[in-house]
Structure formats: C-alpha cells, structure tokens
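--- STAGE predict ---
source: upstream dedup step, 1 unique chain passed
mode: sequence only
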Amino acid sequence: MPAPTAKHDPTPVFARQVLSLFRQELAEVHFPELDREVLEQAEKAVLVAQVEVERIEAQLEAARIARAEQLAELETKAERALAYARVFATSDPELSARVTELGRKKSATLDPNAPVKKRLRSKRNTNGAELFGDSAEPAANSGGESQPVLAS
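--- STAGE serialize ---
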C-alpha cells in the first residue's frame, strides 16, 4: 500500500533527523521495541492523520463557502421581501414606519467575515482624580508629608 500523500509534511524536524539516522547509519540496529521499522510506522501514522486533517479541513472550507452562498441568498431574498413590504405598507403609516426602520437596520447588519472594529478609549483625565475618587485629601506617604495636587 503506498504511503498517504499529505499537502503538508507534519513530521517534526527532530523526528526526521532521527529517522534519517536510523535509515542510514543505524539501519541494521534493533533496540527492544524500537528500530527503524517502528519509527517508520509511527511516521506513517502521523501522515495518515495529516491526510485526514487536510480532508476534513477541505470539507470545512466547502461548508463555509456553501454557508456564505446561503447567507447571500437569504440576504437577497430579505431585501426583495422588504421591497414588497414597502409597497404593501404605503397605505398603513404604522407598518410603513416599521418597514422603514427595518431598512435602516439592514445597513447595520454584521458580516461574519468582516473585521471587528476596535473600541476607542476616551481621553484620560490628566489629574487622576477619578482614579482615587473626588476626595481632595492627599495620600499619606512614608515621610508624613503631603504631596500637592496638580490642577490641569
């Protein structure tokens, strides 16, 4: 049976080096329960597992593509349904307002593949009063002297 072919060789460098040693200089040496053949079987098991991982990853990617296509189809149908609802709601002000609100929310929908926006921090208060409360009492230090409070 031919060895499985993986797109990526998962064999660690160290293991490859040891295998090389046992394939060349130590090819005829047999240690208890460990020799070139045992190492090659272990390497083959890793390759079989890698092929399985790659097969499953390919299936996952295909499933993600199918999901993206289904999401696009749903979005298209939802847009079309909203267009019909707009026409239908022209004689009902309450329904028309609700349909208009849905149209505004559409633009705010999140794309699952879109990058997440970073939250911006507000500017720090330079006097640090909020860190220690609004108390104007100076903190006691080891010398018993008080430190002046700087105003900004």
